[in-house]
């Protein structure tokens, strides 16, 4: 079975009261996760991450370093590899779309409780540990 290649981002913003990360809610799965999606054509993982974050969240982001590679079997039984990048939101605003009905800026502690998949917890920790 062919491996699914995807990329996404841990979008953060640093406020006076602390750092927040952006989570998405996908009604199709009724889950809270990090924005990500499949590669389109021959784009690089960083290009995929940038496009998918913009499409799902409405935020234009600066793409930082790659912070994590996650491997798992998707809901269709296919092996999937997701490359995650640290990102900073520069501008934009969320608008409900086909894939995402809600976003939430969360402190790292709230994100840890809200994320639906344990594998995402390690990705957020890795993103917060990197300085760039």
Automatic annotation (TrEMBL):
SUPFAM superfamilies with a match to the protein in the record: Nudix
Keywords tagged on the record: Hydrolase
Keyword Zinc-finger assigned: no
Keyword Nucleotidyltransferase found: no
GO molecular function, one term: bis(5'-nucleosyl)-tetraphosphatase (asymmetrical) activity
Transmembrane segments: none
Residues in Nudix hydrolase domain copies: 1-128
Pfam families: NUDIX (PF00293)
GO annotation (BP), single: ATP biosynthetic process
UniProt-recorded name of the protein: Unannotated protein
